[in-house]
Amino acid sequence: MPSVSGIRHLSDQLYVIVFTNRSTKLGRQVEALEDTWAEFQQNPSKGTYEELMRFAPKAERAMWHTKAIDAAERGNLGSLIELLLETKETERLVRCLQEASDSALEGLSHYVTEPAAHRLAKTRPEVAARVFRALGMRILQSKKSKYYAAALAHFEDVKNC
Question: pLDDT tens across 59-84, in order?
């Protein structure tokens, strides 16, 4: 069962979606855009980015994209990596991963880091190798022997990079 704060966050997101949909139906696109921007700033993620781009006027989407990515860089590392992968911001992704500490990378879920490592394996092998190493170390540090084969596979990926 989700925590109380998790339920509160989900209800806040639902309110924003309902409110912004109602606002756009009433012709208040500017208000809907402001609300989704406020939600994105609070919780920069792939989902809130998609919602923001849905309300951004087509002529201003490039500006809103840049503004959103800049704001996301000040947020959660895992959400930022997912967003940069989704938006194909490869150079920003590389910079983000280079600036992250080893312990920060090791602390991230493999659902976030593995796609990033695979995306960068051919174009930026030195960055991909660092991420694969973090994936392997995360498994070893958790001391879960049933995943040691996966850790070994990640270290093989490092060698192949």
Answer: 999 999 999 999 999 888 999 999 99
